[in-house]
Each structure stands twice: as C-alpha cells, then as structure tokens.
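About this split. The held-out portion is used to measure sequence recovery: a designer receives only the structure tokens and must propose an amino acid at every position. Recovery is the fraction of positions where the proposal matches the reference. Here is one held-out target exactly as it appears in the evaluation file.
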C-alpha cells in the first residue's frame, strides 16, 4: 500500500495522472452563474434564460479537469443546493462556488443568509465566494466581505486553516479575475487532494 501510494504520488508529480475535480456553483438568481460556467468551459459570452434545472459542464484549470454543476438560483431550486452537497461522496474534495452580484445591493441580505446556511451544510468543503459583474459599478472586495459578514482573517488559500474560504472578484464580460479564479481552483484542488 505504501509503495502504491508512493508510486501514485511520483506519477502525479511527473504529471502523468489525470486530475479531476468537482465543483458546484450556487448563488441567488441572476448572480451570473451560468454566464461564468459558459466562459470557463467554452470561453463564450451568451445571454441565458434563468436556469430551470441543474446543468453540468467540464472545464480545465491548469492541469485539473473540473466537472461543474450550475444548480440554478431561483427560489424553488435552492433545496437542490443542499442535496447536491450531501450527494457528494467526499465533501473535502468538492469545491463550492457561491456567486454574489456586486451590483445589486438589494439582494445582499438574502445572499448573506443563503451563504451562511451553505457554510453550515457543505460540511467544511472549500468555499469560494465570487463577487460578479465587476465591469459595472458595485461593491469592491472589502465592501463585499463586510456585507456578507465574513471574517477577513479566515480568508485565503491556507492549507492549515480549518476551512478553505476566499473571496475573488470577477467579470465574465471583461474576463477580469477569470485567470485568477482558474488558478485558485487548481491550487485549492491540489491542497484538498494531498
Ligand atoms: N455586466 C455583467 N453582466 C453579467 C455578468 N455575468 C452575467 N451577467 C448578466 O447577468 C444576468 C444573469 O446572468 P446568468 O448567468 O443567467 O445568472 P444565473 O446566476 O445563472 O441566474 P439563474 O439561472 O436565475 O440562477 C444576465 O443578464 C447576464 O448577461 C458580468 O460579468 N457582467
Ligand atoms: Mg443560470
């Protein structure tokens, strides 16, 4: 067993083993989840109807192929967020993206409540909060952290912290923050799969 683990780690180090990760993307309706997944998987920007049922797509970030579920944020679909997390065989290997529209102050209270709920039922899975639509006037990262009532000392890609949690700011339209998001996901995957 030890030899096998050692050999697997060696192959991994050489880059011979295919790395796979799983991801769910949640957040209130209109936050920009489907638009972001299209940009990550196909690098295209399209208009979408509000998501009616879960949709899966793949994308590659560095050397990791992610299988990503966009679960839809309309009120009636939110019960699924919990089910998909519970259905994951190993929550430490699942990454959760929670998207928040930084241009819509009216939704922040509801987003905060849903996020804090999600932090409970996702069983310690790494949580990346993505502030969306930064090509338009809206909250900056510090204001978003405050509005969502997050402890800034807990944020970052720190493998020794009890839970990996971070906040990144992204625009699917201008692609600002998208390379940093991909980089974050691949690093988080390697920390969680050590
Ligand atoms: N300006 C700007 N608009 C964006 C961006 N991302 C998404 N949008 C717009 O925001 C609206 C909602 O985007 P969607 O991706 O459909 O949102 P969603 O989170 O999937 O919404 P549900 O499916 O209802 O949960 C659309 O009009 C998008 O064009 C962005 O980065 N910048
Ligand atoms: Mg959608």
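Reference sequence for scoring:
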């Amino acid at each position: 067993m030890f030899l096998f683990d050692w050999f697997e780690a060696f192959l991994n180090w050489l880059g011979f083993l295919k790395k796979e990760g799983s991801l769910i993307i949640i957040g209130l309706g209109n936050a920009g989840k489907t638009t972001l997944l299209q940009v990550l998987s196909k690098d295209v920007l399209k208009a979408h109807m509000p998501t009616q049922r879960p949709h899966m797509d793949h994308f590659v970030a560095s050397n990791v192929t992610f299988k990503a579920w966009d679960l839809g944020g309309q009120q009636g679909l939110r019960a699924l967020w919990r089910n998909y997390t519970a259905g994951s065989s190993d929550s430490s290997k699942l990454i959760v993206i929670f998207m928040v529209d930084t241009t819509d102050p009216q939704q922040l209270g509801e987003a905060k409540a849903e996020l804090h709920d999600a932090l409970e039922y996702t069983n310690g899975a790494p949580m990346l909060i993505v502030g969306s639509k930064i090509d338009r006037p809206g909250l900056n990262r510090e204001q978003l952290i405050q509005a969502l009532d997050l402890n800034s000392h807990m944020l970052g890609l720190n493998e020794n912290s009890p839970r990996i949690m971070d906040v990144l700011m992204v625009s699917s339209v201008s692609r600002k923050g998208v390379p940093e998001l991909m980089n974050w996901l691949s690093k988080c995957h390697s920390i969680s799969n050590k």
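Annotator remark: The chain has one domain: 19-192.
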